[in-house]
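In response to the reviewer comment on reproducibility (Comment 2.3), we provide here a single inverse folding case reported in full, input and output, so that an independent group could reproduce the run without further information from us. The structure tokens appear first.
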């Protein structure tokens, strides 16, 4: 088994190794797994800054602004979740479609009566 990429945090590297041990991954899966770990680390880094600095800062006019780390954390969470979905690691999970079924339109029903 290959070693986890060295730039990952200890937590992400341990998860990378655990997933690599439990699943038969193709080369493209390993790249997705690495991207997921990087997204996790980036989100955790942003969260640590937000914990220390708060969600807002005052701009040069004294008006409160949202810190850029809010978007970094949000985007990293989204990327992590999407990459996990792409990897489909939860093989024992539910088999139904992950999205709600489409709602059929009521148009045409009024015309039929």
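Designed residues, in position order:
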């Amino acid at each position: 088994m290959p070693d986890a990429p060295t730039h990952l945090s200890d937590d992400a590297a341990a998860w990378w190794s655990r997933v690599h041990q439990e699943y038969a991954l193709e080369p493209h899966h390993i790249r997705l797994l690495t991207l997921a770990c990087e997204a996790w680390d980036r989100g955790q880094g942003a969260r640590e800054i937000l914990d220390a600095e708060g969600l807002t800062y005052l701009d040069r006019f004294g008006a409160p602004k949202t810190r850029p780390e809010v978007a970094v954390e949000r985007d990293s969470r989204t990327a992590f979740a999407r990459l996990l979905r792409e990897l489909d690691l939860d093989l024992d999970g539910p088999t139904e479609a992950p999205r709600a079924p489409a709602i059929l339109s009521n148009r045409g029903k009024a015309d039929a009566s």
